[in-house]
Amino acid sequence: MERYFEISGYNERSNQTIWPDFDLSTWPVFSVTSIPRQKDLSSCGLFMLKCMEHWNGSKLTTKFKQGDIDIFRRKLAAILVGSTSNDNTDIPTYNK
């Protein structure tokens, strides 16, 4: 990440952001062991998003499991299609 900050020029523009420190080597590192684990080979990104959604800075505020992620997968698709940031809201119809 430090390299990406360097490439993007964030260090030179640090007075234009609310980030107090771009030196990742000074950031504290915490190991969290009680994170839910995926049961399939395709949900890692969705688990990451769920962890981010429920992380309060020191722990997960809500427990979830694979079944919740399967529901979240469909919900996220609907959120993305219906988002005001989505320039293409046309949902194609497929003839069988």
Automatic annotation (TrEMBL):
InterPro entries according to UniProt: Papain-like_cys_pep_sf, Peptidase_C48_C
Domain Ubiquitin-like protease family profile: 15-77
GO terms under biological process: proteolysis
Entry keywords, A to Z: Hydrolase, Protease
Classification via Pfam families: Peptidase_C48
Highest taxon of the lineage: Eukaryota
Coiled-coil stretches noted in the UniProt entry, renumbered to this chain: none
Molecular function, one GO term: cysteine-type peptidase activity
Family, as annotated: Belongs to the peptidase C48 family.
Protein name per its UniProtKB record: Ubiquitin-like protease family profile domain-containing protein
